[in-house]
Amino acid sequence: MITQEFYCQYLLVSQKNYTMTNFADHAKNLSHDQINRYLKSSKSRPSALWKSVKSEIIQSKNGYILFDDTIVDKNFSHKIEGVRSQYSGNAHGIVKGIGVVTCVYVNPDLLTLHESSAPSAGKLRNYTGKSSS
Q1: Dihedral sign computed on CA atoms, order 108, 110, 111, 114
Q2: Is-cis flag, bond preceding 46, omega within 30?
Q3: R_g of the chain computed on alpha carbons
Q4: Residue 131 carries which DSSP code?
């Protein structure tokens, strides 16, 4: 059975792959379809993820937030929700894709990053990029 806490834990420990297929591959007795139905009917909010990670973030007067946007190329997709035609600086033109914005809180006093990618998850990483969770 999928719960909000279980799903948030998956997002927190995933290194790079936040897909339903990956979740199903790593969760016992869960299929992609079960996860898809849960997410469609779920009332999960970003505040649930924030509640899970806020105790891990150590704020600093020297801290700052970085934002970065990217487009996940979906040029061969025809029916994936969220796919839009948008400008890609990397492709120097219009592509079909899903826009993702990453928000990273940097605490230079601790040399750690707190990363959150919309619509995905929050993570704790050190400057080498290795997970410290």
Answers
A1: negative
A2: no
A3: 16
A4: B
Residue owning tokens 């600093």:
60
Domain ranges for the chain = 1-44, 58-133
Strand partners, 122: 116
Whole-structure pTM value: 0.48
* pLDDT tens digits, one per residue of 95-127: 988 887 777 788 888 875 555 554 433 344 444
Which residues, 6 or more positions from 69, have their beta carbon under 8 angstroms from its beta carbon?
99, 100, 101, 102
Question: DSSP labels for 9-56?
Answer: HHHHH-SS---HHHHHHHSTT--HHHHHHHHHH----HHHHHHHHGGG
Is residue 129 very low, low, confident or very high in pLDDT (cuts 50, 70, 90)? Answer: very low
